[in-house]
Structure formats: C-alpha cells, structure tokens
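Action item from last week, closing it out:
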Amino acid sequence: MQKDKVARSWVSIFLIAWGVFLILEGFKITRFGSPASDMPYWLISIAGLAICCASILVLLKEEASRWRDLMAGIVTALMGTMSAWVALFSSESNIDSNISMLSGMLDIPIGRIMFGIGALVCYLITIYALKLFYKKSTNT
C-alpha cells in the first residue's frame, strides 16, 4: 500500500514537471521545439495545464471526492477544448487516417467529425463532473 502511494507520487511529480514544461513552451518562455505550422502556442499551454490537473487528480485522496470531481471536470474541459480546436481550425494536412480504403476526400471530414464528437463527449463529461461537484458541495 505504501509503495503504491510512493509510486503515484513520483509519477505525479514527473507529470506535473512535464505539464509545467509544456505550459512554459506555450508561453514561449522555453524553446525546445516548434509546433505544427498552424497550431497556436496557447494550445500547447492548454495541453500542459490538462496534464498538470490530471496529475493533481491522481494525488487527491478518495476522501476528497468532490475535489476529484472538479478536477475531472477541468481536465475533460481542457481536453474538449483541444479536440474542438482540431475539429474546427486545424489545417487539412494535419488530419489523416491510416485507413487505406478511404479517399482523401473522405479522410478530412471523417477526421473533423471524430474530433468534434470527441470534444462533445468531453464537454458532456465536464457537465456531469461539475454537476457531481455542485451536488456534493451543497450536501456538506
């Protein structure tokens, strides 16, 4: 049991550091690479923030379940934002599938639809998690 907590702590520390690194990359404080040509830097910061929030979520204890609900809502909202950006604004050259039966004309619309469905699912999970958080916070 104790080894599990230590392992979770080390993984969370690593993920927080990774998320902070991505946030710094998004704010152009560090420069270890460059994003795709049409991808905005704020999207990298959103990804880093999602990773930081997810690692904090791993560290939260079961007794803090309403805070876990809030963090889950934040993480899924951030992931939905990234997916919605890809669905709506990403260039066509960045959307490609590995299904050889599909032509290029079908590749792009199917990719945008799938990313859009992913964003919608993330936002629905966010609404549910925030509803749970609100319900638990009014009960205490």
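Closing note: DSSP finds four helices and no strands in the chain.
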